[in-house]
User: Which sequence fits this backbone?
């Protein structure tokens, strides 16, 4: 009876501790595996959300592109001549940025193609008049700020207008409208910061030139910076616009113009060559956009691998043709691959997974133009 009251022996204690440690090890391993699966699921879901939000944001602006100036006469303007008190645009020797009159402008770096593309959309968010008005009289001496037109309906005080001439296009602010005499007043000052202090700047309009109502223009540029999709929104501004971070985890952006080159109202080629004339801009009916989203989880190398191998091949999209052009759903796509990431040996980019999101957006204001 005394022997039975001595308690557990040392051997029994060691066995119990060993069993407990094995249980803790199994539970810990199961937790780590479950946590890895959870992180992978959340990472994949986050990348999908980021990619879809990015495409939705860009697509929304693309659908508005060209509103207010989708006119054959205006699309051949090229760079706009514009003024914002007290500076002129760069094409007039000033410090303001040059603005190209185009519904969508794709900036593709042909010198360093690994850099992401930039996409700029121009449109008016307001404006009651879609068709241009015609200038009826040559400017009177010393009073070019009074523009006589064939009608002032749809023009309001404060609207930004664009005067289209054979020499180029200039912007101005309406400071007054006169329905009886049918003229638009473009006086300089606080109410007309886009009106120059004196005409001509750099040329005068003449009878027969057109006036378009730009309303309240928007110029939005989408770009990649710091692994994020950024927006630069600047027009008629004297300062440098600061990029705004929109979506995390977006590491590359690619775009192509969809062009109708045979005038059958069907896009037959996708390319990043920027149109040079008004006739070429009329061919642009769509834009194809792709973003590359990075899954945020840093993944270690697989068992037996010498380095990270989560991604070993550069992601591709329908514009990533290696040889220059290939058939793409009966369309021709010029090569514009994802190059902003490197999957070369030793690259940290190999330690992450990626997801590609792309869409083609019809430019409805170009399709339904007057």
Assistant:
């Amino acid at each position: 009876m005394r022997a039975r009251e001595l308690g557990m022996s040392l051997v029994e204690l060691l066995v119990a501790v060993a069993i407990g440690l094995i249980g803790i090890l199994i539970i810990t391993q199961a937790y780590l595996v479950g946590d890895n699966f959870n992180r992978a699921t959340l990472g994949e879901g986050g990348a999908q959300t980021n990619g879809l939000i990015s495409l939705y944001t860009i697509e929304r602006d693309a659908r508005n592109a060209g509103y207010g100036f989708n006119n054959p006469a205006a699309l051949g303007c090229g760079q706009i001549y514009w003024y914002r008190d007290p500076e002129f645009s760069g094409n007039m020797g000033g410090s303001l940025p040059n603005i190209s009159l185009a519904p969508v402008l794709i900036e593709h770096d042909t010198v360093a193609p690994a850099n992401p593309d930039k996409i700029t959309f121009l449109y008016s968010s307001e404006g009651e008049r879609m068709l241009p008005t015609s200038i009826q009289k040559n400017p009177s001496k010393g009073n070019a700020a009074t523009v006589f037109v064939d009608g002032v309906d749809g023009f309001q005080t404060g609207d930004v207008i664009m005067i289209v001439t054979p020499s180029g296009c200039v912007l101005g602010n309406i400071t007054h409208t006169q329905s009886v005499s049918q003229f638009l007043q473009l006086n300089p000052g606080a109410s007309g910061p886009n009106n120059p202090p004196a005409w001509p700047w750099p040329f005068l309009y003449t009878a027969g030139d057109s006036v378009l109502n730009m309303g309240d223009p928007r110029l939005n540029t989408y770009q990649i910076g710091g692994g994020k999709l950024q927006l630069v929104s600047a027009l008629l501004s004297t300062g440098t616009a600061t990029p705004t971070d929109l979506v995390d985890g977006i590491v590359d952006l690619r775009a192509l113009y969809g062009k109708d080159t045979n005038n059958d109202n069907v896009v037959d080629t996708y390319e990043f060559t920027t149109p040079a004339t008004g006739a070429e801009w009329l061919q642009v009916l769509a834009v194809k956009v792709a973003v590359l989203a990075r899954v945020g989880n840093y993944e270690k190398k697989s068992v037996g691998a010498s380095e990270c191998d989560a991604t070993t091949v550069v992601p591709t999209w329908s514009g990533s043709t290696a040889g220059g052009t290939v058939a793409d759903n009966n369309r021709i796509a010029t090569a514009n691959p994802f190059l902003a990431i490197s999957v070369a040996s030793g690259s940290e980019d190999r330690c992450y997974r990626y997801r590609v999101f792309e869409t083609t957006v019809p430019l409805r204001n170009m399709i339904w133009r007057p």
Notes: Residues 10-64 form the longest helix (55 residues).
